[in-house]
Write a structure and sequence with these properties.
The protein has about 325 residues and is of the alpha+beta class. It has two domains: about 90 residues; about 180 residues. Helices cover about 45% and strands about 15% of the residues. The chain is built from eleven helices and twelve strands. The strands form four sheets. A five-stranded mixed β-sheet has the order 8-9-10-11-12, with helices on both faces. The protein has a three-stranded antiparallel β-sheet with strand order 1-3-2. Strands 4-5 form a two-stranded antiparallel ribbon. β9 and β10 form a beta hairpin. α6 crosses α11. The longest helix has about 30 residues. The protein is globular. The chain starts with a helix and ends in a 16-residue tail after the last helix. About 25% of the residues are buried.
Length: about 325
């Protein structure tokens, strides 16, 4: 959006971007909702997420892509990242960046469509070839899988797994009710929703899916919900004791006070890794719930990827 604004104002042909008053937040917000995969975005990408992702991959770089003035709600792209000087030649990368984004969007759309088509094919064939269906889903619970697909498949497996369990509760010991555990997905993937991806009824357990073992991310999620216990579903093949030890080690290095570290570690109710998910998937399949998992994956994917309603084939056609 900011590179678009930069080009729309003609700054790729001028040298006075430093004096530009900046793009209005309201206009950027409207524009992001028009772009593919942007209909549910809030302000997090502009205000925090993009710059943090940039720092993660370029930790020694002092600049960040987005510059903003919180008081005026004006935003700028960091022009220093758009301009490359080679010898005496000066190259502006703004239009190339837009073309790269267009190509990336097209590739992601194609990937998601093929994923949905594969799921649908597996749904039709799983009764005849259950081994193929099981292998297909097992391949989706791996560290190199797209984060959104991993979250959706994890949810489908866990929903079927917990759905086979029930609890007894009541106001008195003579008046008990049996209720099956039900897992709910609280919103879209990668949403800034206070660290709650799934919620379980009636136990009130909270689940957060994550790709990282970054203690700051874990404890930020915990603090967001006032240290309510969280179960972390981690896209990692490392065993859970090793993951827990890494989190504790980082926590000690960050906070340096054992009581603080212990209090925060106590808020991690459980760590579910890739091997645990695959083990639970095996149990679900053994109980005849493979079709249920496939149906849930398809249902959640259609919502997440807006299948059949993804706007356009790219973003170029929508350029101002």
């Amino acid at each position: 959006m900011l590179v678009e604004d930069y080009l729309n104002q003609g700054y790729d042909q001028r040298d006075d971007y430093a004096s530009y008053e900046g793009a209005k937040f309201s206009e950027l917000f409207r524009r992001q909702r028009e772009l593919p995969f942007g209909s549910k975005l809030q302000n997090h990408a502009l205000n925090h997420r993009l710059n943090q992702e940039f720092r993660k991959f370029f930790p020694t770089e002092e600049v960040v892509p987005i510059i903003r003035n919180p008081e005026t709600k004006r935003y700028w792209i960091n022009e220093g990242l758009l301009i490359v000087e080679i010898g005496n030649d000066r190259h502006n990368l703004a239009r190339s960046i837009i073309r790269i984004i267009d190509a990336y969007v097209a590739a992601k759309k194609d990937s998601f469509r093929r994923f949905i088509e594969s799921c649908d094919k597996i749904r039709r064939l799983h009764a005849e070839a259950p081994d193929k269906a099981r292998t297909f889903i097992t391949g989706l619970v791996q560290p190199n899988i797209d984060a959104r697909i991993f979250e959706i498949v994890s949810f489908a497996i866990m929903k079927a797994h917990y759905g086979q369990q029930s609890v007894f509760w009541g106001w008195t010991e003579d008046d008990l009710n049996e209720e099956a555990l039900v897992l709910y997905k609280t919103g879209r993937t990668n949403a800034n929703d206070g660290g709650i991806d799934f919620v379980m009824k009636p136990l009130g357990r909270f689940f957060q899916v994550t790709e990282t073992v970054d203690v700051r991310k874990y404890f930020l999620d915990i603090e967001k919900i006032q240290r309510y216990p969280l179960t972390f579903v981690v896209k990692s093949t490392d065993d859970t004791p090793a993951l827990s030890a890494r989190i504790r080690e980082q926590a000690r290095a960050t906070y340096g006070v054992d009581t603080v570290v212990d209090r925060l570690m106590d808020c991690i109710e459980e760590i579910i890794n890739v091997p645990t998910l695959l083990e639970r998937f095996g149990e679900v399949v053994a109980d005849g719930k493979l079709g249920e998992v496939i149906e849930e994956i398809i249902r959640q994917s259609q919502v997440e990827f807006n299948v059949g309603g993804i706007p356009g084939d790219g973003v170029s056609a929508q350029r101002a």
